[in-house]
Amino acid sequence: MNKVEVFENERATGYNQFVETWIPNYHYFLDRLPKLLSDTDQKDLLVVGCGTGNEIERFVKAPEQWTITGIDPSPEMIKQAKDKLHFYNKVSLIEGLVSKLDMEKKYSAATLLLVLHFLDDKGNKLNLLKDIADRLVSGATFVILDITGDKKQIQQNLKVLKLLLPEGLDEEQINNRLNRIGNELFTVSEQRLSELLQEAGFEAPLRFFQSSIYMGWLTKKK
Question: Could you say which DSSP state residue 166 is in?
């Protein structure tokens, strides 16, 4: 059974404000997701850890007609996503885990944004990546955004992140958050992330985006 981080209560209701504050270029990254996946033939997308539906919102407004399945273990996040996306009949939102999705259904693309750093590297990261790979067609594109880097790299980029934060934030809250990122999350090095993806059944990933501690990766299902 995978250990999962479930966003509830204030963490769920304040999620959108949180990511806008703490992830420089967050909207830039999301806005370009449909372009990154525009050469996908079947336009059948799996959004893992869909949260409040921020990335799904970009795909339903894209020129291409996507059929989208979003999945998240948090009932509160799924509720927010349903409130936001109930107008779109090609979007299915599921409260639960990827491991519970039907193995017969195969997707032509997938995203995993801001999820992996909550899972330990004692099997849980690999299990999730395998569960995703098992539900993709061969050649499917997979996009990841996550906090990535070895200890030294993370600490150096946290200094950069602090400089990029909006004005007026509480200094104690900033330092608490930076300490949590540096010491409590399950971040891995770029090399280790590549190893995990290849072991799970993906090609060696390409890092195509970075904003301080946050890195974007592209790979394909073998």
Answer: P
Q: Does residue 197 lie within any of the structural domains?
A: yes
Residue 116: CB atoms within 10 A of its CB come to: 26
pLDDT in tens, 36-67: 999 999 999 999 999 999 999 999 999 999 99
Q: What phi and psi, each to the nearest 5 degrees, are found at residue 143? A: -115, 130
The CA dihedral of 54, 77, 209, 148, to the nearest 10 degrees, is: 180
Q: Of all helices (H) and strands (E), which one includes residue 123?
A: none
Q: 55-61 — which CB contacts under 8 Å span 24+ positions?
A: 55/30, 55/111, 55/113, 56/81, 56/85, 56/91, 57/84, 57/85, 58/30, 58/31, 58/33, 58/34, 59/33, 59/34, 60/85, 60/88, 60/90, 60/91
pLDDT in tens, 65-118: 999 999 999 999 999 999 999 999 999 999 999 999 999 999 999 999 999 999
Q: Residue 128's domain is classified under what CATH number?
A: 3.40.50.150
Tokens at 123, concatenated: 């099997």
Which domain range does residue 179 map to?
A: 9-220
The pLDDT of residue 20 is 87
Please tell me whether the overall predicted TM-score, pTM, comes out greater than 0.70 for this model: yes
CA distances from 189 to 52, 77, 150 (A): 28, 29, 4
* Distance in angstroms (rounded) separating the CA atoms of residues 37 and 19: 23
Residue 191 is given by DSSP the state H
Residue 221 DSSP label? B
Tell me how many domains the chain contains: 1
* pLDDT given at position 5: 53
